[in-house]
Design goal:
Length: about 525
């Protein structure tokens, strides 16, 4: 049986429990390593009366252990406290992972006194490793007056217990810091990529009307002018808004997008300006609106022509004063927000009908940008189609290499009511359904293949002979084969499972020039 502890021993046990409890509380609430280690040393100084204490940590990607927190050391003494594995008592503990006890530092030749703070005083030195996942990540050491061996051993055992508790806390904080730093770096990288992606130079289109749009973006980007982007649905208005934002000095701040047509009239005011708790049924807590979220950045209001007259009044005030109140609140909130709006509506007609305020229109129309529909920029259709092929090749891991002549003719003849968005959807579908690395006419959506919609009917309204229709179809097949084989008739004949003599005969009859496809 073990002997019952003496009153002095009981008092010591209670003191140790109190220290461990306070250290555990510090671990829960502290998220900075240096502050945590200093608080632990403060607790031990207050409760145990240690005269000097140090906590070292291994440098990231290094074997050097450096003092991270200390008691009783000056700044200069702390800077000198660096130890390689095996160097001195501290280095030996760091290398072996085993605690060390020096009853009297003046009698131990291995004690380096690297900090030169002891001045050859007779004190005991206790050092224990801080181990996490079987790796020494630091050391903890204290100076205390010379005492009997049993008392020193008890202090060493208690110090080991403190180091075990600290190991988890220090490792957790380090992991949190590394994760946060990684997220910050990833966020910074993504912002750079996003800015590059939405830069005007990455927008596809080379017709004169699009070159004018690029010039307008570069002109207005660094100003604070309100921009109104006009154009049919699917022409890329949001892409232009993002290009303006990421070309401006606000590019590192938020870009908040609101589709006004997608929000019910009862909710749009709350979405834009936020609301206070209890402002209406269901408002269980305070909520910040999009204006507040976009503070310092850009707010893009898409389909601005669909907002209600009551919201138009409030929006006019924000544009004039850059101030507003949340729904149900009386506190005025100021914001620094760049406003970009877009619409596919005829705002002039809506003004004549009394559905859109004239004063708001003139506030929004400071710098108008008009995006042409795709049918008015046919020279860009194949540029856009090729860029979408590359995009969806990467997304779906496909190897589409070209677009057939028949498919090109279909796309060039179609009137594209859905503009660039419709073209992108068509290419995505064609990439998915293609089985031979080529986008054919039959892989395009039915809307492009219908003669009445595409205006590409093979059969004229006045009719045509069966022979003429067959020749037309055969011509497309032969041209497609010649393109794939660089105009070499012999290779094309093998692909079409016919003889070169028969193919050359049909080439001459149909008036095809193979050299045009080399």
């Amino acid at each position: 049986m073990t002997k019952p502890e003496t009153p002095l021993g009981e008092k010591r046990s209670q003191l140790e429990l109190e220290i461990l409890y306070r250290i555990s509380q510090t671990l829960v609430h502290q998220h900075d390593i240096s502050a945590l280690l200093n608080e632990v040393l403060d607790i031990m100084e207050t409760e145990m009366g240690l005269s000097r204490g140090t906590l070292t940590l291994r440098r990231p990607n290094s074997d050097v252990f450096q003092i991270e927190a200390s008691k009783g050391l000056s700044v200069e003494e702390r800077k000198r406290g660096q130890y390689a594995p095996g160097e001195g008592i501290t280095g030996r503990v760091a290398k072996s992972g085993k605690a060390a006890l020096v009853p009297d530092i003046t009698k131990d030749p291995n004690f380096l006194d690297r900090t030169r703070a002891r001045k050859q005083r007779s004190v005991a030195f206790l050092c224990v490793p801080i181990i996490h996942q079987r790796q020494v990540i630091g050391t903890m050491s204290i100076d205390r007056p010379v005492a009997p061996d049993a008392e020193l051993q008890r202090d060493l055992a208690f110090l080991n217990l403190v180091a075990d508790i600290l190991a988890e806390g220090v490792a957790r904080i380090r992991e949190d810091i590394e994760e946060r730093d990684s997220l910050v770096a990833e966020n910074r990288r993504l912002r750079v990529e996003l800015g590059d992606h939405y830069h005007p130079s990455n927008m596809v289109g080379n017709c004169s009307s699009m070159r004018q749009v690029y010039e307008q973006i570069n002109t207005v980007a660094d100003s604070t002018a309100t921009v109104l982007i006009r154009g049919e649905s699917g022409t890329g208005k949001e892409l232009v808004a993002r290009a303006i934002h990421f070309s401006s000095s606000r590019k590192n701040n938020p870009f908040i997008c609101v589709n006004c047509a997608a929000l019910p009239e009862t909710l749009i005011e709350s979405e834009l300006f936020g609301h206070e708790k209890g402002a209406f049924t269901g408002a269980l807590q305070q909520r910040r609106g999009r204006f507040e979220l976009a503070n310092g950045g850009t707010l893009f209001l898409d389909e601005i022509g669909d907002i209600s007259p009551s919201v138009q009044v409030r929006l006019l005030r924000v544009l004039q004063e850059r101030m507003f109140e949340r729904v149900g609140g009386d506190k005025t909130i100021g914001v620094n927000v760049r406003i970009i709006t877009a619409t596919s509506q005829d705002l002039e007609s809506r003004m004549r009908e009394g559905r859109f305020r004239e004063d708001l229109f003139y506030r929004l129309n400071v710098f108008p940008i008009h995006l042409p529909p795709l049918r008015e920029r046919r020279s860009d259709i194949m540029l856009l189609a090729d860029s979408f092929v590359q995009k969806y090749n990467q997304i779906y891991n496909k190897q589409i290499k070209r677009i057939s002549t028949a498919a090109i003719n279909m796309m060039m003849a179609y009137h594209w009511p859905g503009n660039v968005r419709e073209l992108e959807n068509c290419i995505e579908r064609a990439v998915l359904t293609s089985t031979d690395s080529v986008i054919h006419g039959y892989t395009l959506p039915p809307s492009l293949q219908t003669a009445d919609q595409t205006h590409t009917a093979i059969l004229p309204k006045e009719g045509a002979s069966l022979r003429a229709l067959v020749d037309s179809y055969e011509r497309e097949i032969i041209i497609d084969a010649l393109k794939q084989n660089r105009g070499i008739a012999a290779a094309a004949s093998r692909q079409l499972h016919t003889t070169q003599r028969v193919l050359n005969y049909r080439i001459r009859q149909l008036g095809i020039a193979p050299r045009n496809y080399r």
